[in-house]
Amino acid sequence: MTPLQLGLSDLRVTPICLGTMTFGEQVDADGAHAILDRALARGINFLDTAEMYSVPPRRETFGATETILGQWFAKRPEVRRQVVLATKVAGPSRNMDWIRGGARDLRPEHIIQACEDSLRRLQTDVIDLYQIHWPNRNAPAFGALYHDPSKDAEQTSIEAQLRAMETLVKAGKVRHVGLSNETPWGLMAFLREAERHGLPRVQTVQNPYALTNRVVDNGLDEVMHKESVSLLAYSPLAFGGLTGKYDGPGFDPAQPELGRIARFDSMRKQRWARPEALTAARRYNALARAHGLSPVQMALAFCYRNWRVASTIIGVTSVAQLDECLDAWSVPLSPELLAEIDKLRWEMRDPAQ
C-alpha cells in the first residue's frame, strides 16, 4: 500500500485511513488500542478523529475518542511520529450545547482553544491535519438537499477562520489544514482567500462517499482535481448499509451488535437509514453477491480504486472488522461491474445524500 501525497502538502498517507469515532462509545479503550495496534502492524499510517467524537455525539463522551488516542500515544511514544494524525474542530452548534455553549458561530478564538484542547487530549504537540468539521455558514450538509438563502446569517468570515489556522500553523501546533462536509463553493472560497491573503491552503476535504452517496461526483470532484485538493472519503459502507447487515426487514434494538443504526435511535433518523437509502443499499449488496463478492468488498473496492479518492476512512468496532476492510484492498472490480454500478446509480441517484 504505497503512501500518497495529500493535496500540495508534505503529508504522505496510506490510501486507507483508520477512522476512530466508534472509540469511546461502541469500543472501549482496550478494544480501541488493539484495533490501533493491528492497523499499525498492517501498515496503516493515517488516523482521523474529531473533538466531537465519539458518535453518536453526547455530552458524556465529548472528547472521549481523542482521549483514548492520547492514551495510546502515551503508551507507545515512538508511534506518534510514525502516523499522520488528523482531527477536527466542530462547526457552529447543531443542537450540541455542550460544545462552546452551543455557539452558533465558530470564532477564531474557538478554533485556537479547540486545537489546544485537542492537543492536550491527544497528548501530542502537533496535529498534522486540522479540519473544520462542517461549514461555519448556512450551507446544505448532513442530508440537507438545498441551500436556503433565507437562513443566511452573519458569521465569522472564511478569511478570519484561515487567520486562526495561520496562528496555529505559525505556532507549530498544526501542520496543514482541511475542510469537511464542504461544498464546491465553500472549497473555492477557502482557496481564493488563502491565495489572496497568503494564508494556509486547504489540502483536503473530508466528505461522504459511498455507493449510495456520490454527491462528490456532481461537481466537487472537478474542483478538487483541478485545484489539487485531496478527497478523504468517509462512510464508504454507508453506516453499515453496504455491509449487508441491514438487508433484512427493519431494525431490532435488541440486536445492537448489528451496528449504530440498530443500536442508537438517533442514528435511525439520519440519511443512511432512510428507507430509500437502505433499498438502494440492498440493490448494491445483491449486485456484489451476483459477482461473487461480499457487499463489503465491493463497496470498499469502489472507493479504494476510485480516481477521486485519496484516502478512504474506515470505521470499525473490532480487529476482525478491520482485517475485513483492509483485505478488500486487493479486490479488483471489472469494467463490467463498474458499468452495472453506474447503471444502478443512474436509476437511484444518491438516496443517502
TrEMBL record:
Transmembrane segments: none annotated. GO terms for molecular function: oxidoreductase activity. Residues 15-344 form the NADP-dependent oxidoreductase domain. The keyword Secreted does not apply. Gene3D superfamilies: NADP-dependent oxidoreductase domain (3.20.20.100). The keyword Oxidoreductase applies. It comes from the Bacteria. Pfam families: Aldo_ket_red. Keywords: Oxidoreductase. This is Aldo/keto reductase.
